[in-house]
Design brief:
The protein is an alpha+beta fold and 782 residues long. It is built from 24 helices and 33 strands. Pfam families: Glyco_hydro_129.
Amino acid sequence: MNFKKIVTSLALLSLTMTGCGITGQSKTNKPSLKVTEQEFSKNKSYAKKDFDYKVDPETFQLSLTTNGKTEIVAQPQQPRKIADYQETASEISWSYPDEHVEITLKKEKDHLAVKILNQAKKDNTFSWPKIDAENYTLPIAEGKSIPNNQPEWLKYFLGNNEIDLLEAFSMSFFSINQSNFATTFVLDNTFNSQMIATTEPHLSFETSHTFVGFDPNKTLNYRIYLTDNDPVAIAKTYQKDRVALDKFKTLEQKAQENPEINKMNGALQIYFWNNRLLTSDDVKWQALAAEIDEPIFKWIGELLAKYGEDGDEEYQSILPAIKAGEAYKYEQNVFLNSLNYVLLYPEFYNSEIFTKPDEVASKLIEKGVDKLTEQERYTLNQHLMAGTLGTDVTKPLEQWGQKASTNVLTDMKKSGINKAWIGLPNWANGLMNPKMVAEANDKGYLVGPYDSYQSIQEDASIDWNTASFPNPTLYEDATITNKKGDKIPGFLGKVRKLNSTLIFPDVKERVTGILANNIPFNSWFLDTDAAGEIYNDYDPTHKTTQADDVDARLKRMNYLNSLGMVVGAETGNDFASEGMVYAHGLETPVIMWSDPDMRQNKESEYYVGDYAAVDGGIPSKYNKVVPIKDEYKPIYTDPLYSVPLYKLVYNRSVITSHHWEWDSYKIKGLTGQRRLQEYLYNTPPMVHLDQATWQDRKEDIVQNAKTWTPFQEKALQHEMTNFSYLSEDRLVQRTDFGADLSVVANFSKTDFQLGKETIPPGTALIIEGNKTTLIDTRTVEK
């Protein structure tokens, strides 16, 4: 690859587009449809049409030639027995009788079509192509450019040599960069496809596909494109292919069906933690000491003992300290966690304890406690508790938790956060505090719950309500069986994986129940649904394929969209691109599940944190700032190996951000670098907030939002039309969004001169027409 030539020419081009001085962003009108169509139509020019091919049927070696230059794009495999060889002016075909497949190659206008037809009735795995190149352009997360000899990548693939393409790749292609051109292998989808990595003498891969015996689709199609060695050419060629397959839908088209989607344009991605309705500020601790022997507190202990996952031992242990007026931080946390926990219980109402319910509670009791919706149950429990404790012990019920929730949202809006997506860790957080949800909605924000239909536990519980369903038959009758006949375990091995094709009525039942009292959620986040954890189910009573699984996930996305929800999903792999509006996990995926220093060793500086927060705020897993090991940086964060492949395809289709475990502040020492890349890639910042963290990071969040929101509103109106390196070391990078909006990010350690503008290290320059804005991250870590 001649990077030097590309870098030099692009740097010269960029000088002609530089503005004159650093000013605020100017307002631009929405581009005409004609402009965006012009950006889109350019895609037709990237794939080379003048090429020839040569194939050896025995070894399936494939060579391509263009402009007199030839490359072996599929390396020879072990010779196979062939039969039925035929050659016409337009096609070559043959069969591999021992492998039970038929092969057809046909030269089309701008690509070589390779069709592999399976004739076996049972599961049948066929390997091809075997690729060996000096560099690979792969849609791992947002996109990676991987040299075949890079030490950290070799180490990574040595330990992760079996790659499930459906899970590992965000799009259905892979590209090899050779001396003369790039070759891109595009598939219809990556169902049942794998890669095996080899690291000696350097990095190479072999792809295989398993034809599932009961899958009616017996054909694997490759479309092989030749382009320049340029990630833009590769990505835009893939985009054109998706459009041709009618698998491309813009945000504008989605917003025509659901106008709420427009609220996502320019929105910060905020996970908001409000796990307590009753907070420390709401309790009058000295007054409580005199009341701690009242029957309600004994009843709370009985409920915890009978239904609590951890019992009542810790709760009982702190009651004497509270009675003695010695309720310090630990005692307060245990007490508050216990009271907020029992507010969730269907069994909370006890007529012998709650003898004088107020008017609201009385009406709900008359309705029948077992007939209440989930939100009504929480309302009943709140009124029962508040009425019994009285205003001598707590603030009035309408004030419970509002300082830590509604007041924070009000302050966000007042401070200048005009657009935000507010994600709640559970729908119960919203149902318990509907005033907060209404406040978010009234402020023009999107607000919605995290939800999951990936797993089911055998016994339903409020501790893990996303894995709990009223339907008692699902655990045995709607869970996935693998080829060996075993049930597939779910998260942490505690549950089973659900078959999405069998639970749509249960999805509707859950969602309908959550929305029964018209809580104003306007967004919904679906865990795992676009993360590639897709399955074939071999249960003889309900055999289903990966394609069936994806269709069922899209069906529930479309159902939620029909309810006016702005739908998001984990990761954002593009088999779900038409159904989702936003995705979390593509820009920074989960980093190294398998490293014990990060996951088990709590004494390690790399330990990412715990799932629980004793103070009811943000769990340390999401709020603790930690470094990552140097060996992981090339894999996950180093801009030298990152390329915006997904954005070059889907900038106007899906808004992508980080995985919630790795928000914009999570990685020690890399907050500034990641912010530069957020602007470069049009990636919304993500942050976990509670009352304390909002106060701590408020100044930085607000200052950044002033630039971010108008920037993204403009960037989403265009394709990402270009990505280029402006320096020899490839650490000064540029992206273009149409003709009048660009970002130049300097990841290097030296100043970069762009025309009359000096771009210091750790800064990015937004160029909008003849105006520029400098994003300075040099002090963001301090």
